[in-house]
Write a structure and sequence with these properties.
The complex is a heterodimer. Chain A is α/β, with parallel strands linked by helices. Helices cover about 45% and strands about 10% of the residues of chain A. In chain A, helix 11 (about 225-235) crosses helix 13, helix 13 packs across helix 20 (about 435-455) and helix 15 (about 305-315) runs antiparallel to helix 18. The chains are: A alpha/beta, B mainly alpha.
């Protein structure tokens, strides 16, 4: 035992030495990162830029996503032979984890696909690692291509503090919106039409329940799926402007309002009425939509990303609609957003060429390519010709909600911790471990702590 | 032989010519010995000591992983103690310890002594079967058990097939049962390892000891307590050390099955480390949790080895 002491001592010595000599973490990057100064003069003529290599990191690895990306890259290089695209694609999870390190390194990629949220894009903007696209936006007319309700998801103020406003930092290709998938067969058997108003929706839930079918499918083991259900209900009860303020984590709104209480109470009522299957907190997301695709349950609140799979499995039995309003022609309010936007890094040596690339993969031709490869393009959505059925429902819905400015952000964008806070709080609410009041107090605390510290 | 003796006597006489080396341990001087350690030490230092020191350093900063960190002093550690959710995570890890270490040890003792005593035919077959869970990657184990625990999964159908529908529930979504359910996967996983370790220990015990015990009139239980248990103390210590460490650093199991839910009822420290460092960008806080976890693991495994060593000698 005694013999060990010198070794312990020297280990402690090494530790102390390390702590003393090392400088603050991250300080070595500081000198290397120039604060981005957007160029006033931008060159939009990609053919005149000489031989350029662009390194692009994306996460378009699956099916139609991969197909559109490789097709657009091929076309871009055919059009501008002087620009070589070096594509590095990783899965979403991998990209999310490696991007942080790559951006703080000395030779980051030129174009990166970054998650929109505060803990990703917000942090990168704060650290000065992304270029503001405002000048390019003017030069290429991107603000006309994408309405404000789409651009807000890639906008931050220059200090990265405020989300949803300020400069544009990214360009998305695809859109997504959370709505209600319904099984037309089950609705018909229960003697109801696909609802057009919230009251009809309520009646339909009750009618399906009376028939002995499951009205609403939900699998909440993964914590996040209930966020979409709550967001959909909240879109009905709470003014869209309040939801935006809350979801972008800006000061000046509150969770503990009567409207939000109604939303939370509605979820509890659904549980009490037996609209969900028992044990929703113990069932995974994927098994549940797969069960829905096999004909179980009348409604499924989920995003447009399930469209291809559901259409394949259910054919004409499935439909999609935006959350209904008080009247059939009320402005729709739906949780939604864009796919991961493409951004330009501040250390890129060829920002002009990178901007030309961004322009190319988001122009109207690109939107057609996206449609052909089975994606939901973020712009010109209603103009695309699709083969009817569920896909047409989805395209019309997204086109409508963007045009009527009814997109509200995902609630977990609000603060870096909101995804967990909200996910856990909703599990508590659905299991009746928390009352609507306690549920909202939990959210309010997370939101106001952040709003206070963020200034 | 003769040649060897001659040689050795020659060398000893040569050694006697150099009285300076008398009293020193044989072999080359100590300082040269350290040279042999150097390559291993370099690898150890680069991949273990340096990261450890960096983590300790980071734990004193408030750092998001991108911008320059600011000195936070002991704030991150204070948070580990005062934050109820974090404290909860450490408590969950201790509960998991029971499922990962204590229960497998008890089951392992019973299984191993049965297998050892009865000298069943095909012992190696049973040993392989018991050990099999260890071979499967933890992520695969977790995905499989997630299906078993699902509301319409294997466990509930088994219960209802024997008329126990009332006991069925969404195991991983139940506030009271989620942590034990996750823990039971650990039990299933670690039992094989413990059993095989103990079997090896029991195989080493000399048969004469048992014979002597039997001559003194000891029954099977007495035999187990007086002969088997003391002889395999070392194996028990090893088994406990391995399983306790596995329990405390559980990450993959929780990540795949529940993500810490429902609510916060299955969150564990390692999951919090990952979550804070890679998802929330609170690297300093994550490092502080990691350091605390390291200390806890070190203290517990040190305690276990001390007990194992003391009694064995």
């Amino acid at each position: 035992m005694f013999r060990r002491t010198p070794r312990v001592l020297s280990a402690a010595g090494i530790l102390a030495l390390g702590a003393l000599t090392a400088c603050a973490p991250g300080s070595s990057n500081d000198s290397a990162t120039p604060k981005p100064t957007p160029k006033a003069e931008v060159n939009t003529d990609a053919a005149s830029m000489g031989d350029v290599t662009l390194v692009v990191w994306d996460q378009e690895v699956r099916g139609g996503q991969a197909a559109q990306m490789s097709q657009l890259n091929k076309e871009f290089q055919a059009k501008y032979p002087n620009i070589t695209i070096k594509r590095v694609s990783r899965s979403f999870e991998d990209l999310k984890k490696t991007l942080r390190l790559a951006l703080s390194g000395n030779e980051p990629p030129d174009v990166v696909q970054s998650n929109n949220g505060r803990s990703d894009m917000g942090e990168f903007v704060k650290a000065g690692e992304l270029v503001s696209l405002d000048n390019y936006s003017k030069a290429y007319g991107w603000d006309a291509r994408f309405p404000e309700s789409v651009r807000q998801y890639s906008s931050y103020t220059a200090d990265g503090r405020s989300f949803g406003e300020g400069n544009l930092y990214g360009m998305p290709q695809v859109g997504e919106v959370v709505g209600i998938f319904y099984n037309a067969k089950i609705l018909a058997a229960a003697g109801v039409q696909p609802p057009t108003t919230w009251a009809e929706f309520d009646d339909a839930l009750a009618a399906v329940k009376a028939k002995g079918e499951v009205p609403m499918m939900l699998g909440n083991l993964d914590k996040w799926p209930a966020i979409h259900v709550f967001g959909t209900v909240q879109g009905h009860t709470t003014p869209a402007q309040d939801i935006k303020t809350l979801a972008f984590g800006r000061d000046g709104a509150s969770w503990t309002t009567p409207e939000n209480t109604t939303a939370a109470q509605t979820l509890v009522d659904w549980v009490d009425n037996g609209y969900f299957e028992p044990g929703i907190n113990g069932e995974g997301y994927d098994p549940v939509w797969q069960k829905f695709s096999k004909g179980k349950g009348a409604f499924l609140i989920a995003g447009t990303w399930l469209q291809a799979d559901l259409q394949k499995a259910m054919g004409s039995d499935v439909g999609f609609m935006l959350p209904p309003g008080d009247s059939a022609d009320a402005r729709p309010v739906a949780t939604g957003g864009t796919g991961l936007p493409f951004a330009i890094t501040s250390k890129s040596k060829n920002p002009d060429a990178a901007a030309a690339y961004l322009d190319f993969i988001t122009d109207s031709h690109a939107m057609n390519v996206l449609t052909e490869t089975g994606n939901l393009p973020v712009a010109d959505t209603a103009d695309q010709s699709v083969g009817g059925g569920l896909q047409e429902d989805v395209f019309t819905s997204f086109g409508t909600v963007v045009q009527k400015d009814g997109l509200v952000p995902y609630l977990d964008y609000a603060t870096p911790t909101m995804y967990d806070t909200l996910g856990a709080a909703l599990q508590d609410l659905l299991a009746k471990k928390a009352t609507p009041r306690q549920f909202l107090d939990t959210l309010e605390k997370d939101y106001s702590d952040f709003a206070a510290s963020n200034g | 032989m003769v040649v060897q003796q001659l040689e050795s006597s020659a060398s000893s006489s040569r050694a006697a010519d150099r009285p300076a080396r008398r009293g020193q341990p044989p072999g080359e001087p100590r300082r040269v010995a350290y040279l042999y350690l150097l390559p291993a030490f370099l690898a150890y230092a680069a991949f273990l000591l340096y990261p450890l020191v960096r983590s300790v350093q980071l734990s004193f900063y408030d750092w998001d992983g991108l911008t320059v960190g600011t000195w936070a002093g002991l704030d991150n550690y204070r948070e580990v103690i005062t934050d109820g959710a974090l404290r909860g995570a450490f408590v969950h890890a201790l509960v998991l310890m029971v499922f990962y270490a204590v229960v497998p040890l008890l089951i392992g003792l019973v299984l191993a002594s049965i297998l050892n005593r009865s000298r069943v035919r095909g012992l190696s077959f049973f040993r392989t079967v018991v050990f099999l869970p260890q071979v499967v990657a933890m992520v695969v184990v977790a995905v499989a058990w997630r299906r078993i625990y699902a509301p319409q999964g294997g466990l509930n159908s088994l219960l209802s097939s024997v008329g126990l529908d009332s006991l069925g529930r969404a195991w991983l979504g139940d506030y009271a049962f989620a942590l034990p359910a996750v823990g039971f996967i650990g039990t299933w996983f670690e039992t094989g390892l413990v059993t095989v370790l103990l079997l090896a220990g029991m195989g080493r015990i000399s048969g004469e000891l048992y014979e002597a015990a039997r001559l003194d009139g000891a029954g099977p239980l007495r035999e187990f307590l007086a002969v088997t248990l003391p002889s395999i103390r070392r194996e028990i210590a090893v088994a406990l050390t391995l399983t306790v460490i596995a329990a405390l650093r559980t990450f993959d199991l929780v990540y795949v099955t529940t993500r810490g839910g429902p609510g916060q009822s299955t969150s564990v420290p390692s999951y919090e480390v990952y979550h804070r460092a890679f998802e929330l960008g609170q690297v300093g806080s994550a490092a502080a949790i990691g350091v605390c976890l390291t200390l806890v693991i070190f203290a517990i495994s040190f305690g276990i080895t001390r007990i194992g060593d003391r009694d064995a000698t």
